[in-house]
TrEMBL record:
Pfam families: FYVE (PF01363), GAF (PF01590). It comes from the Eukaryota. Residues 94-140, 338-361 are annotated as: Disordered. GO terms for molecular function: zinc ion binding. SUPFAM superfamilies: FYVE/PHD zinc finger, GAF domain-like. This is FYVE-type domain-containing protein. Keywords: Metal-binding, Zinc, Zinc-finger. Residues 126-136 have a biased composition (Polar residues). Residues 32-92 form the FYVE-type domain. The keyword Zinc applies. SMART domains: FYVE, GAF.
Length: 361
């Protein structure tokens, strides 16, 4: 069962207008001198990544992590103000209907050890696009794209008519870093669900997901409009998207030789449009994407929103990792202190020469 969007949530580019009481007075803003990196994506400020203030929380953020929202201001009247993605997510979370029944989980049911289904039978059985096409007027999409160019070779030397998924340079290191986040096959979490809703609403797309790629599958930490929680890497669009730190947009999948014969395109799902922004660690490793699908081709796309949401996804992955590690660090510190005390109280004895290499027991 696909997870439905949050009803009544504040959406990016929505019609909700901020009021003066929702904005933080300039006197209460965090000083520029107190921040050397963006509060949302944690990237350092540079000559090209300039400092901005979120008008809701007053934090110092980069332009990539803000969106402009309408606000009703005294004297000036209606105007556009910068709001950081963290505040937009928090506001959307607060607007979610508390009486709504819990969504059916879309993640956590398949383990990493489970082999992916065979590609030729997988799509028809598991991938179902929503019955309706994308909704809303696409006239606000402002950025035009040519069919994407790519600088890696395509390998067709296997039993399927679409190319093999490319392998990222430094793939083993990328996988090790992904495992360090301990995120695969974890239960749903509100912040990632909201990211999906915002992506789906902003790009008027019936399908959206926060995805992560391991050795043989693309797993969805959160999704909208998908009936399953993973796909084999062999049919994954995002396997191509993580070949570059730049976002990947495919306006018409039938015109792209990487995907024209992919079962997600030729089968029941009938995917015709893809846009994805990579989730990039501070070290430059690409863990996955925030992406959208549509069953209709397009002529233009506002990719900036996906880039901002992918930054937010990365920030929340780091926060989650740090929150899990903190209790472990405290426990280790206590154990060391207790060990030192025991060593102090123990009777001294002559030192003995070390035996063996010191590795193992």
């Amino acid at each position: 069962m696909s997870r439905k969007g949050l009803k009544g949530s504040s959406t990016i580019g929505g019609n909700d207008v901020l009021t003066i009481d929702q904005l933080r007075h300039q006197d209460d803003w965090v000083l520029d001198t107190e921040r050397y990196r963006c509060h949302v994506c944690t990237r350092n400020f540079t000559r090209f990544r300039r400092k901005h203030h979120c008008r809701k929380c007053g934090e110092v953020v980069c332009g990539n992590c803000t969106l402009k929202k309408e606000a009703e201001l005294p004297v000036i009247g209606r105007s556009l103000v910068r709001v950081c993605m963290s505040c937009i997510l928090s506001h959307a979370n607060g607007q979610a209907n508390p009486q709504a029944p819990p969504a059916a989980p879309t993640t956590g049911t398949t383990t990493a050890s489970s082999p992916p289904p065979r590609e030729e039978h997988w799509e028809a059985q598991n991938f179902h696009s929503p019955t309706g096409n994308s909704e809303g007027d696409l006239s606000h999409f402002t950025r035009d794209f040519q069919q994407p160019e790519f600088d890696y070779p395509l390998d067709f030397s296997w039993d399927h008519p679409w190319p093999k998924p490319p392998i990222v340079p430094g793939e083993s290191e990328r996988l090790e870093i992904l495992r360090g986040f301990d995120i695969m096959d974890t239960p749903t979490e509100d912040v990632f669900d909201i990211i999906c809703d915002l992506a789906s609403n902003a790009l008027k797309s019936p399908i959206a997901a926060v995805s992560l790629l391991d050795e043989d599958r693309e797993w969805f930490k959160a999704s909208v409009g998908l009936a399953q929680n993973e796909v084999p890497r062999s049919v994954s669009f995002c396997a191509h998207a993580i070949m570059s730190k730049e976002p990947m947009v495919v306006m018409d999948t039938l015109l792209d030789k990487r995907f024209a014969k992919n079962p997600l395109v030729t089968g029941a799902a009938k995917i015709r449009f893809y846009a994805g922004a990579p989730i990039c660690t501070p070290s430059g490793h690409l863990l996955g994407t925030v992406f959208v699908f549509d069953t209709q081709p397009r002529n233009s796309c506002d990719i900036a929103t996906l880039e901002k949401l992918s930054n937010v996804a990365m920030k929340n992955l780091e926060d989650r990792k740090n929150a899990v590690a903190a209790p472990l660090d405290n426990g280790a510190a206590v154990e060391v202190v207790e060990s030192d005390e025991q060593q102090t109280e123990a009777p001294k004895r002559p030192a003995e020469p070390l035996r063996g290499s010191g590795i193992g027991i």
